[in-house]
Amino acid sequence: MQRSGEQPAQSDKVEVVRPHRVVQPPRPQILRGLRRALGTGGLYAIGYGNVGSSIYYALGITAFYALGATPIALAIAGALFIFTAATYAEGAAMIPEAGGSSAFARRAFNDLVSFIAGWALILNYLVTTSISAITVVFYLGYFWDPFKTNNVISALGGMVVIFVLMMLNVIGVRETSRVNIVFCVIDLLTQALLIVVGMFTLFNLPRLLGYVDWGGSATWPTTPGLIYSVSIAMVAYFGLESVCQMAEETKEPGKTMPRALLLSVVTVLVMYAFIPLVALSAMTPEQLNTEWHEDPIAGIAHYLKPLQVERPTFSLFLSMRDFMRPWVAVLAATILLIAANAGLLAASRLSFSMAQHRQIPAIFGRVHRVFRTPHIAIISFAAIASVLLVPGFFGSYVLLKLGELYTFGAMLAFSLAHASIITLRVKEPDAERPWRAGLNVHIRGYRISVTAIIGLASTLTVFLVILWTRDFARWVGLGWIAVGIVTYYLYRRASGLDPIRVAPTRTMPQPKPTRMRIPREAVARAIESILVPVQDAEDAEVSIPIACRLARAYRAELHVLHVVIVPRSLPLDTALEEQLQEGESILTTAENIAEEKFDMTMRTHLLQARAAGAAIVELAADANADVILMATGRPYVAGERVFEETAEYVFKQASCQVWTMRLSPHR
Q: What is the DSSP letter of 468?
């Protein structure tokens, strides 16, 4: 037996010393639980990764309509974005569950309004996937020109990206918050570098002022055009919902989610304040709208001036363009690939949540027997995201149409979020709100958020502008909502459910309480608690006898854990019934071995988590375990990871001793 940390010396065979057991009164034991792992950093990375990634295409979309007034349009849209961020911060803190505006609307109104909000969000996530996927191809045009110049190749390339992401998500390939944080930091540093170098080498105030022509010109929009450009600039700020979808995985969501949301807002506003200034100093509006429309950040990198230093003893010449062009191409493609994947993941998660709330047919919540992912939802939404790229085959500026549709769905969801928060201030004035938006007014004795009122007025206005002026967004968006409402109504009627009232959810069945006798000793011992993770019944047959002998020898409390791995395409609280029943069976086997062979009892734990190692370490801390006893030597399939990797993680992260048992691969 291999051990880490100090331990009493003893022989290879465990000797039972002074067996003693005190029977405690039976008490219930909670078997199932969820592991909340995301802190402010992880949530911030997710939020900025989704909102910040939009700069790679939103700048070109906004500039097409705003021309030289692009910085003004983005600034006004950013100011309105602050009100929406405040609403989401209050709502996410008050209702820390996946769903975002859909969850807010369910609490404030009913299932029908909640469905409309959720259905609009799904449309947004699909457009996010489409627009990010095709922009990946545009930025890779640096390496092969047809990716950018040939419409058919661009659209096909976007569809291939979506297909690859679909296959990865069906199989269940992992994505970790640590990876998100790393790429978020790299992205932030790159954008900051472009801003700093651009402001020093490219910024040209006279040129920017030269674009101004309030009557409208080739470089400046008319007043109606500027108003519309502000509405379309809102495409730059969608992504808040991605933070709300992670509510069930967040530590202390009442504090963490508002902090991460507001931190994301500040960062995005700073970036959007400077990047348009650098872009329009480097390029004319005409150049930005033609040559660099699909990859505007690449345009900034292209026009960066070289850094040249001349000294008597040495000289330095660095071509920033030659360095930054390929770097921006690769980084943008990577960030956008993550954003496209996040859109597909968010759509599948939200659809699963809506299926649990009986708002869409249960088939969208069906989980694959092998991969444990919502494969039907993933495949269906990937197909729809691919169809949204079809206009790209027939002409340029597909990003404009997708941007309009994006704004349609986002403004509808944002409007319902604002309305929900206002309604909840009246409907549930005394409800616990860990974070409350400021600037309140008293109306008929109720404290109503001014930011929510302004946010509702602004987002609803933008929604109506898009609805009135953009044919593609109007018909595709309204068609999507209409098909969804009809499907919702027919499904609820067929299920015998009221279309309006909140329906009972498909909840995870709770296990029966377990009666236990727990060994204890009044005298303090060096080892008082042992945690044993088990993979299957075969593991239990080998591990539990050894663990029981150790528990007797040290007169320690014994904890046995089985972890059900939940893929990231599903909410963490997904009821994976087959895996949970299997886990209960494994733990029952462990209990039977301890009871029948050693006349001992244990505390059993069945956890759902994204990764087994982190769940083991966290439970060890919660249970005050002095030793974690792990079996190694053969693969432990948990998603895509093997148990050897889990053991390595536990060795590095656990705050207690870790003992391992080397098992035969062929036992």
A: H
